[in-house]
Amino acid sequence: MTTTSNQFDEPHLIGPFAVVPKTNCPHLADRTYTLPQSANKVDGHQPPCTDCGAIRENWICLQENCSQVGCSRYQQKHMLVHHQNTGHSICLSLSDHSFYCYTCESYIDSPKLAQVNQQLIEASN
């Protein structure tokens, strides 16, 4: 991420590298989110990207009834392409368990995502 002096005026960015998740994302649906089955590890690795088979830095779409796994923008950008093609905004990083909204272009946090967090904790035990 490139940091500019303007970024210090944005409330969800602190300093050159720390990002504070947005807590009022309007793109979260009025429902409780759950961890899709397609998020389960395969042979001890993240599930592969649906498009290219990559097993690093993958994201999973959290749109209801969608189970797309896509690689990050630092790989071949298949989750970004999924968002561009479908309008599905909310996804979960299978690397660091952060949530991101492509429409807001921001990491997000919300009580609506608490169940996903709990399921991630249970899955890692």
Features:
5-stranded antiparallel sheet, 125 residues, alpha+beta, 17% strand, 7 strands, globular
Class by alpha and beta content: alpha+beta
Strand content bin: 15-25%
Strand order of the largest sheet: 4-3-5-6-7
Mean pLDDT: 87
N-to-C CA distance: 33 Å
Can you summarize the main beta sheet? 5 strands, antiparallel
Number of helices: 2
Q: Helical amount among residues, as a percent range?
A: 10-25%
- As a whole number of angstroms, the C-alpha radius of gyration is 15 Å
Low-confidence stretches: 1-8
What is the chain-wise order of helices and strands?
EEEEHEEEH
Shape: globular
Plain-language structure description:
There is one protein chain. The protein is of the alpha+beta class. The chain is 16% helix and 17% strand.
TL;DR?
The protein has 125 residues and is an alpha+beta fold. Helices cover 16% and strands 17% of the residues.
Task: Write the SSE topology.
Blueprint: E1 13-14, E2 18-19, E3 58-61, E4 69-71, H1 78-86, E5 90-93, E6 99-101, E7 106-108, H2 114-124
